[in-house]
């Protein structure tokens, strides 16, 4: 991973032998305001520096926790007090298309000073999140995103249920944002990577617990472009869901990779006899603390029962079906890539001109949103997609409105996901049932890549 030269990762705790972390009071609102307001604000990120100018939902970093029960309706009047147009996208929710928050495709962008009423049902339990979908690369880098938690009607018993929004920020030493949003270097390389990492807005996220407490940890990877590799220490248990969707079989919680926009739900018990439980990140061979759970006396005396897999959500599986539609999606472009030309707004252009127009990537030779959909399907059709990463960079491809499964050696298997990670030069196949009518985006969730060309859409006709 690139760290910008001259901007070392600062104020981060090395895992081995450090205990000087500050206690940060984490404030979660469980109140449910019926509006959600995006506006400029300030927030303390860098210690001993002035607060950072941010854009925030309801003046909070991250945005307020929206929590409801499966099957309920989420209703929020979005108020845009930003200096630019915005929308809210409810990432991972298999939503009514009109509520998906994609400018031009599903609604008009909400102008400064205007409002938009979001009102939809949440069909699936799990860990989701919300963020803008207009100039997303700038609006998210400035701080706009928040957790959306949908509880099961019969949730598993835990002592603490903690969403953990991991983010990174590109800041100067004085706490101000490095205002190079839209830098072509980021757009054609790995995206905007920050130099400060926060979890729920804190550079040292800490939550005191008791020995043997059971923790539900909902990891949400929200940066523009950063991939986290990490692991656990002093916490033993299971991965129970990816991208909101329960795993049929629990996986032992251990080392993990989280691409931008991906979620991972853990249910883990705090081990006896440790000083703290830790979620750490591995970077260049070093382990850094992302979140710590210090033991502050006391212990749970009745151990909780053995964990069972969570009840599945009503997501249709393509398993056992032949595809009605097959399609290829080939990613190309980026620094060190082979792309020489691409079609932009219907015109074939050489790479030099594309770059001048802010484009650096393409899907199937097309840079940016095409007039026509990548796939036209009728509701209920089964789609198989071969996705080829013909670039020298990793990507995280996200499909709106649906969850898909992977197909390995002719078998559809594995967890449902809404965002899939690709290593450089990797090819994978996904299958899904197009059961949700509407116009749905398919894009790289490395936001600079999306802005610089990696976006398409599929049309599911009613
Ligand atoms: Cu999380 Cu199209 O976005
Ligand atoms: Cu990408």
Oligomeric status of the shown chains?
Answer: single chain
Approximate strand percentage? over 45%
Question: Can you count the helices?
Answer: 4
Strand order of the largest sheet: 10-9-13-18-15-16
Low-confidence stretches: 1-11, 17-30
The class by helix and strand makeup works out as: mainly beta
Write a compact overview of the structure shown.
Helices cover 4% and strands 45% of the residues.
Describe the 3D structure.
By secondary structure, the chain is mostly beta strands. The protein has 4 helices and 34 strands. The strands form 7 sheets. The protein has a 6-stranded mixed β-sheet, with no helix packed on it. Strands 11, 12, 14, 17, 19 and 20 form a 6-stranded mixed β-sheet that branches. It has a 6-stranded mixed β-sheet with strand order 24-21-27-32-29-30, with no helix packed on it. Residues 1-11 and 17-30 have low confidence and may be disordered. The site of CU-O-CU linkage has 10 residues, from strand 5 and strand 33.
Describe the protein's topology.
Layout: E1 35-43, E2 52-57, E3 66-69, E4 73-80, E5 89-91, E6 115-121, E7 126-131, H1 136-139, E8 146-151, E9 160-169, H2 184-188, E10 196-199, E11 205-206, E12 209-211, E13 214-221, E14 228-233, E15 235-242, E16 245-252, E17 256-258, E18 263-270, E19 276-283, E20 286-299, E21 325-333, E22 341-344, E23 347-350, H3 351-356, E24 361-363, E25 366-367, E26 375-378, E27 381-389, E28 395-399, E29 404-408, E30 411-417, E31 419-422, E32 427-434, E33 438-444, H4 447-451, E34 455-461
Bound molecules: CU-O-CU linkage and copper (II) ion.
